[in-house]
């Protein structure tokens, strides 16, 4: 708001000990000088040209009342008042508004007496003085107390130590304790000149306050709550304490909406915003085509708003799903419903008044925007893109400067630029993706983009009824935002997106079919028209989707359509060109698309990734306790992203697995000498992959010329420029450090993978040498500008040479004039641009014969100063050269970034190489420094079939936190590929199943495993069916979920797969469950023949395979107290044979069920067992009688009768 502009314009606080006139004049002078407005001498020392600053967002002024207290021109009350002092009524007469004069433009000095204060004469209204105490009176103008905050000085080494992620204002504590603003500014930019707006009204005197977190509040000053400027009072009058800031007026009887601070605001009562809400096309929410991103505004309402608020509404009505950070002066303002969000999420206090309004300084943008984005909001940054001078030059009737949306951030479109803050997820180095999805029947097209690196992934595939491949995509990638066509998703797909742990909280954007979610043909047309790629440099992935005649291939139409929706969303966020122009496209192929053992990587579907808790735990969806947390020891951001990819893509080919294991073994042996130094270098590197994307955007000529950020008026521009250069220098220094890594490994490694790594690392030393000599890094970091050295930029060199030449000619001309006038004391004088180089000549040297060419410009006692035609000609040449030099210097930073970006492919290859090395070192650390880890042995699948032999295996995550973890053996061979596992509840069956899958996965990604020995043939797929769960909201029961997942296994498993099933069939009756389990076991055993571990409580199922040599029987052992059958000790050890009981009553005891319930359950269990035994005995007798009768065996019949009797 305008008062904040006044605040930013003041550089020094009022001085203590000054009188009213001196302090008022001092403040007025400071404001006038910093805002660049005309000033003339007046009673207070200066008079300012009227600026409608305090009324920037106020409604049009009304005519003043004929009686009552005057609203304007009232003298400010004393800082300290006697209790008996009362203001007298002021009689105001209506007067015509005079825009050219300020209410304080012409005043009379206030005479301070012990009893009363003489009023200052004001225009346009006259007032009656108010009696005050002997304390000094204050002028009736905004008063600001200043508390400068000192900044610690950073050394050159400190500046290079971190990237711009650390430059956010996160170090300022978030507290509700309010402090007085402001901080002195190094420069001021003119604020909108509204001297023609005589309809704007000036509010009461205000005080601007800022908290430690950068938030700003505005509070009116009344006669009862004025805080004195002076820190120490010399009078003994009682001091009235300032009332605490309040959000607004007292709460009304109506229930305030959430986030409104307990008070109903203006926007809470607007029916067109709530009950009668419509979109811009006047469609109600009940309309299927209703667009909740837009809002219909009644013209009657809009016409009553100030021009500035009309400008705000023009942006807001088209972005109702977005929080606007609206720039006013040096502050970002939040209004109405956005201010409610600021109050609720950012703890920004409301400013006084019925209008919800809050704000914060420009420097706090990164902090607050990142907080909202992390909570799932969209944030638009609306910047001022012209100055008042530019507004006047436009010759428009508009009273407010132009503003434009310069950025739209969301969880999926955060590029972490020099302005934007990083969310907690992005700070961990994790890749966060925007997913655009297009569906047609059971086929999907998808486009994934990581906006921090500009990496796109494009794919199309057919899916099953259960959407198994879609679930796998959602498990493989960290999805932050989903974009899809309105009414374009089936209910099955919506159920997957709505109820998945990873996607249920994602930000969702629905696009209009055709207009926003483009079809394939329009997408290609838009890509061409926007010229994201050079004509001959289209990414190969996109070219593979297009036929020779320019049409999109039928089997790629959905993928290109998904890309169209993604591009539209990126274009709305104003980052489409900077990301697409990188051309980093990859193809997504479903893991199960290849035939057995022909693919390079192991197939891990979404169920397996979730059930094994590879990336996130199943408790709260965080990384804590996951396999990734246990294995990932990488120390670079790009290394962490690569390691996550390795974990989800274990190798299938034996040769590649052995090669990676050899590299890990080599690094283990070098740890104490080379690896420790390499790791320290890697630790010092910034996130080079993300920096490359930032530098590419900053070096783009297209962005500099067309992006609204290039027109934005930024008050913290100097600090932003320093951030840009700091990122650039950090990238250069990072790549220089990486050269040292190559040198350390060159003669130390022997493994083929590492020697190939050293040889293939790109040679960037020559390019780095160029940038070392191109500019002074230290000077650039300090000034925020890059001044090129000679030979780097031809335009700059030509201009600089011309400046030097002209200066030399001026020096020669000076020597000639000294010689002509025979006076060596002649010098050049002058600093103003057009009046420089005046010849300052002693009057004694000229005498009465002044040269005709000498034109008098100025003089001082004993000297005269002249210009000559030669000097004017040289000065014109000098100014022209200086202008050309300045123009070249302005664009020099961008040009340097663009030069760096020309080698993007080489830089990216170096980053990928460093990421691979970081991952190999991580595997070496976990393999070499963990107790009990052993190198696995791999063999190609023999004629006898796939096998798995693990001795004393442990679960890596649990064993790391449980010192006495019990190891177990597992053997699955070609002759015995299946293990039926029984045992008591809580005996460790599920842990053993997961453990074996994780050990296989670790082995095939090239890591040692926690076991005494491990030998196996490669696995092509890992399938898991664990736990009992239902999807109520998706309309799927427990049994349905179990059988759907099992169906996926039976369809896709091969003889080289590893399958684990836990208690299949529990969701139905015992007989049906046993029958289903039996049929599945039979199919896996005889139909597929893969390695399988099947845990069950169906003892009848286990008994079916007692004599089957292809099935191994095992159980989790336990020890029963001989004196108390209910007391069981779990041994967590795998033993041979069948477990006699499940010991469910023991679990009931541990769960502390009531004793009477447990007793009744025990009695009923015994009854059921007796009944089952009797039933089984009768069944056996009936079978024996039938057999004897069929064989006509009378002896057998008599024997049965005898036994029965």
From TrEMBL:
GO terms for molecular function: ATP binding; ATP-dependent DNA damage sensor activity; mismatched DNA binding. It holds the Pfam family MutS_V. One of its GO terms (cellular component) is MutSalpha complex. Residues 57-266 are annotated as: Disordered. Residues 1057-1073 form the DNA mismatch repair proteins mutS family domain. SUPFAM superfamilies: DNA repair protein MutS, domain I, DNA repair protein MutS, domain II, DNA repair protein MutS, domain III, P-loop containing nucleoside triphosphate hydrolases. Residues 74-137, 236-258 have a biased composition (Low complexity). InterPro entries: DNA_mismatch_repair_MutS-lik_N, DNA_mismatch_repair_MutS/MSH, DNA_mismatch_repair_MutS_C, DNA_mismatch_repair_MutS_clamp, DNA_mismatch_repair_MutS_core, DNA_mismatch_repair_MutS_N, DNA_mismatch_repair_MutS_sf, DNA_mmatch_repair_MutS_con_dom. One of its GO terms (biological process) is mismatch repair. Belongs to the DNA mismatch repair MutS family. Component of the post-replicative DNA mismatch repair system (MMR). This is DNA mismatch repair protein. It comes from Saprolegnia diclina (strain VS20).
